[in-house]
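Troubleshooting log. The previous structure file for this entry was overwritten by mistake, so regenerating from the original sequence record. Sequence copied from the archived sheet and checked twice against the printout by T.R.
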Amino acid sequence: MIELANVSKVVTSGSENLTILHSVTLTIPRGQFVSVIGPSGSGKSTMLGLIAGLDNPTTGDIFLDGQNITKMSEDQLAEFRGAKLGFIFQSFHLIPSLTAYENILVPMEIMGVSNATKRAQSLLDEVGLHERGHHYPSQLSGGEQQRVAIARAFANEPPILLADEPTGNLDTNNGSHIFDLLLKLNHERKTTLVLVTHDQILADKADRKISLRGGHVAEDVLKELAVPQPQGNN
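Regenerated output below.
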């Protein structure tokens, strides 16, 4: 479960303070697929970064699987992220000097996974790259690189997967394949998936759609009910 309790984020812009998120309160149950949409500057990526513990909120608390990550030290947070979170970026963030297989393997070796080599190959197979494991990122297409990034994100079987515009740098066909793969893994592994996207069509396929405007939750809609839900009710 993901819970944000009165979370705000204020940054300094020149001589003024700029509020990016305004006291956001919401709960995302385990296994739910949530899309987060909104115009540029609405706070989407900021909120995702806060959930990932990549930044600290100015006020409020963030709970992941019942643990308050805003109270953790840097070391505790790094360990927690390695065990609980997978993150997929728009620009892939693969290590260029490592092969596709090694990009998946190394995080598991760092975490001390006992069957890391077998699991890395299994994940490559799962994302349809059985024959491409020995290739470096520069030798892969954008869609293939993003598939490697997805496999890496699932390497430690995290209960929570965060994706920031994962199809943003891909053409329509590759973007659709990547989205379908994320949806498949979400369903099969019961992973909580939070997807930031500008694509309204993709957003509408989620179990729940949260719209941000000006740092506020403007709309929170459950697909099953197809009507707006009061903020914080799930």
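The first strand starts at residue 2 and ends at 13. Archived copy saved in two places this time.
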